[in-house]
Amino acid sequence: MTYIGNDAFRNCINLESIIIPEGLTSISDGTFSGCSGLISVTIPNSVATIQHYAFNQCTSLNRVIVSDSITEIATPDNATGIETGAFYCCSNLRNISIPNTVSSIGEVAFKGCKSLVNVTAKGVTDIGNLAFSECSSLESITINKQVSYIGNSAFDECTDLTEIITSDVQIGIKTSNNVVGIGDNAFKNCKKLRNAIVPDRATSIANGAFFGCISLVSIVIPKSVTSIGTIAFLGCINLTSITIPSSVTAIGEGTFLNCNALTEIKGVKGSFAETWAKENGYTFIVQ
Q1: Cα 244 to Cα 255: distance, rounded to the nearest angstrom
Q2: Per-residue pLDDT averaged across 158-169, rounded?
Q3: Mean pLDDT, all residues of the chain
């Protein structure tokens, strides 16, 4: 057997386990969607592709073993990644280690996986919109240091997220046509996130990117960033200091609104950051 068709086992609610045979090369769209009793899945070495919504609403699924042989999970143009809704609302899934061959995680891929605690994705350089949104138990994620894009609301409402670990792994990096940056509301209401490092390739921090991150005390913004969006850090009540590089030439309205502990901004003399800080009542410290 090398192929299972679309929706083949959709809504088989009493299916508890399945052995995917060696030799199968693809898991099609929606193959196990709605299999609410499915507990564990091991994906064999022969599988090269996992298609859209393959395990959507598998609410009892708590263990997934993904083989290093997987190079494509429902992505166009022969990209390597986990794409739309692959594990959407698998509410019992606790841990997943994504092989270094995978470089992109698509929209809503793990949205609503409320039991997901840790994610290792060392080869990933592109994280799509809402990819981990509402993963309320997610505590840490390891991603590639060269990540180029974190999409809109990618970690929105990940209220237990405390750390983002960056890896130097270079495997699987792809050229992306996406805007390089952090999307709108990317880390909105990640209330336990204390420290954040903006990726070295990012050119923008979008609107509301760190909105409501009430535990955030420090953030490193690289020299590649040219703009910081509206309400990007609104309500970060424990943020005490921030360094804004000379590359930044635009700061949106209300960017640091209700950041009550923020009294100083650091940067380069004569920069846009210095002018902005003084115009908005902050002490500017030249570095």
Answers
A1: 13
A2: 77
A3: 83
